[in-house]
Amino acid sequence: MGDMFRSEKMALCQLFIQPEAAYASIAELGESGCVQFRDLNEEVSAFQRKYVNEVRRCDDMERRLRYVESEMKKDEVTLPVLRPEEEPSAPNPREIVDLEAQLEKTDNELREMSANGASLDANFRHMQELKCVLENTEGFFSDQEVINLDVNRKLDPEDPANLPGAAQRGQLAFVAGVIKLERFFSFERMLWRISRGNIFLRRADIDGLVADEETGRPVLKTVFVAFFQGEQLKQRIKKVCTGYHAAVYPCPSSHAERKEMIKDVNVRLEDLKLVLSQSADHRSRVLNSASKHLPRWSIMVRKMKAIYHILNFFNPDVTGKCLIGEGWVPTNDISTVQDALARASKVSESSIPAFMNVIETNEMPPTYTRTNKFTNGFQNLVDSYGMASYREVNPALYACITFPFLFAVMFGDLGHGLILLLFASWLIIKEKQLSSIKEEIFNIFFGGRYIIFLMGIFSIYTGFIYNDVFSKSMNIFGSAWHMNYTRDVVQDENLKYITLRPNDTVYKTYPFGMDPIWQLADNKIIFLNTFKMKLSIIVGVIHMIFGVSMSVVNFAYYKKYASIFLEFLPQVLFLLLLFGYMVFMMFFKWVVYNDTVEGPLSPACAPSILILFINMILQGSQDTPEPCKEFMFDGQKSIQQVFVIIAVICIPWMLLGKPLYIMFKRKMNGAPAPKPQSAGGEGHGEDDAMGEIFIHQAIHTIEYVLSTVSHTASYLRLWALSLAHAQLSEVLWNMVFSMGFKYDSYIGGILIYVFFGAWALLTVGILVLIEGLSAFLHTLRLHWVEFMSKFYEGAGYAFEPFAFKTILDVSEDD
């Protein structure tokens, strides 16, 4: 937890590496994941860098890998999943040559098999369609038609009947083929139009589905035969067939020739089936062999490409015998980087070892907060608002407790909290098995499993405080109230209500949480409303005061001591003297006013805190009956006037204090030269023009004064959601589950199960999921706006080290 108070210290390091050891050095640094490299060749285009050819080689290998993987997906070949300890390291130069040759061989072999397979499939499909044409056209011909019907018949040019212009009566020709059934009717109309009705078209549907040659999907097809006269009409028909993607096949008119042709086609089909089967077996063997190595090849190529990409960031020295690079390194990991460089120099057998220097810079370093699987979820919530400035106080450390607590204030139910706890416990116990699931929605819950776990624990705690279990109460310690009425009074039909006064009926204090007797009280909602409303204001003011106080830690670290007096002090005074005082009045009213005394301190004379606070701001007053008093203690009016005056003074203090200090400082030291904004600045540096400083400070002051009021009221959402959650839970119990208790016979026993199922489903779906998500979002807003805005700047940028693990995880997500 100590590492989470601030981001880690960073150092800008300069690396000097020999070219022969550069590849091995970057590989070792990629395994350690400790360096964020800077691009020293930003002006150089990607095509002019030193290792551009190596990057292209990696791109070519990635292309081949993608093709091989796509072929495996077509054949539904499963790839083995590598465990983290089985992942290969970055390949050395000799392994790169072997890997490239192996990939090229596999790629070429698969492409050749795919081309041959496509040709064989096309031939097989055409043979099947030809067979269908020959078989389905059997009923279109008869032996008597052979004399005057022949598609292959050649006309004798010396025959007078065949001269141009002569009638060709009695000589019918035909075209046979296969077309998609959905296109046939349009095809038929087109033939009718081009021939003016001089074509006789017959069709026979093919049984079952046939693979489409264009898409490969199964479609319905039909065999057609078009009878016609004349060579010119034949050419038109063939053009229409081409336009409709209809396949035309030769079909003899003689029955004997067709029968002989069918035998020939059947022989060729059997041969093609044998060849296709052998080709499929060979393809399966190649793909299964490649699948055993493909995950390793993919990891090796990605690592190799990442290494050469980082090497393009390096700049060669003047002599060209050394590569110089720069990068940010956490100071705690400098020794790790040095060890990695030493190992790389030893592996590459370099004559001069690589070394690293820490250089001074005024540039703001990246922000890096070291987390574990428990704190990572909370850190992600904070980073979603904005990355912390370098070495700024990290709100995630406190959000580990305040976030689940504020959630539980709105979600206070022991039963619902137990459901959250059980769900989160299952996610934590099955952590290793569930981490392999890549479904997006599930990963959101899985990533926040420890947040849900704490939210469940705190909801159980607040459920004990509210004494609320699925809208019912538990009488664990025995009620502190006792009945002081006789049986006759209680059973009086004319008596509508029984009033229990604390002075007469309370004999002890309920040890923990809410007394269960409030579950039976008619004024339950009124009592819980006032209790939860005041509780939400108290929690909110404490939360905001803590946020303002954290700004002192930032000012002290960045050595802005003047800001402690000119910004923090007026801010905390303004908050404490107004809303802190209101919280004090709540506790004072609870302690002083009770039912054991009469007169001004009796409960009937207790003043309204809201009216007192409004009169304090507006300097008003109210009339009170005797013996009650307007104020809760002597001198309260004078104290309130002093508090209001000091709070009003704090406004110009915040508005003019810092600008006047900067102006005075400039006059004493002279006009300084502009300097880069330092880390932890307020968005506007002290070297800006005075006009900009005054405007910025005015905006900051107006924002703080107005937000102090609005943020305090914003914490009332704790009360509103808690009340809504409790009432909705009670409605579900009374309107759903309790309906099963109204039947006494065996039917009632059956209905209890039915109503319980409906109640459980609605409870989980509405109260746990929807209400839980609503409470989560409201809690997130309270942290982002009401708490973190008091001290958190969030103007930094994330530390993104060169790490193979990150690169491989991103590749898997893509």
Describe the 3D structure.
The protein has helices at residues 19-32, 52-74, 93-136, 181-195, 231-243, 255-291, 294-311, 334-348, 376-385, 396-410, 414-429, 431-434, 440-447, 449-466, 487-490, 502-505, 524-557, 561-592, 609-618, 636-669, 690-714, 717-735, 746-787, 804-813; strands at residues 10-17, 36-38, 173-180, 200-205, 210-211, 218-219, 221-228, 247-249, 315-316, 323-330, 355-359. Helices cover 57% and strands 7% of the residues. The chain has 3 domains: 10-107 and 284-359, no CATH class; 117-140 and 172-277, Alpha-Beta Plaits (2-Layer Sandwich); 374-670 and 686-790, no CATH class. The strands form 3 sheets. Strands 1, 2, 9, 10 and 11 form a 5-stranded antiparallel sheet that branches. It is built from 24 helices and 11 strands. It is an alpha+beta fold and 814 residues long. It is extended and about 125 Å long.
Summarize the structure.
InterPro entries: V-ATPase_116kDa_su, V-type_ATPase_116kDa_su_euka. The protein is of the alpha+beta class. It folds into 3 domains: 10-107 and 284-359, no CATH class; 117-140 and 172-277, 2-Layer Sandwich (Alpha-Beta Plaits); 374-670 and 686-790, no CATH class.
